[in-house]
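# step 3/5: fold
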Amino acid sequence: MKRRKRPLLILAMLAVMLGGPRSEAYTAKETTTMSELTISSPSFGHNAAIPEKHTCDGRDLNPALAISHVPPGAKSLALIVDDPDAPVGTWVHWVIWNIDPNTAEIREDSVPKGAIQGINDFRKHSYGGPCPPSGTHRYFFKLYALDTMLSLNPNSGKAELEKAMKGHILSHTEIMGLYKRK
């Protein structure tokens, strides 16, 4: 019995230490956090339905987002909203960076002053709400606290943003919402 428990214990400890899979945007070194950066929304809870007004079936407004516990030393925040369930691969709905780290909320249908919106997969410099062709899709609102301001062309997208953030991520968090068209 003891022999069987030991490998399971070792695997469990490794899983905790490694923390599961990581995005290519950051490395294990960068994920050490001194605070619990958080993002939430008064419009929907984590793993809950995104209201229609924030989708292509409604007014296509970005939802309000609350930000808290930004780590000391953060010079800016970045946000990526994407759908990994899209039939063509991960679909990017919103890319925004150089958000002031003192920002406590992103209001509905707004962009924080001074922040830069990159280009999404709708080929627009704005929020593009959920619009799945079939089934229920997951929409990840990923927030990053960075130790720098980014010098990116406004025509940059998710790939360029992730490359620019590499080595500068102090902390990260996300909230995931769901949407299925009627």
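# step 4/5: annotate
The domain at 24-180 is CATH 3.90.280.10 (Phosphatidylethanolamine-binding Protein).
# step 5/5: archive (pending)
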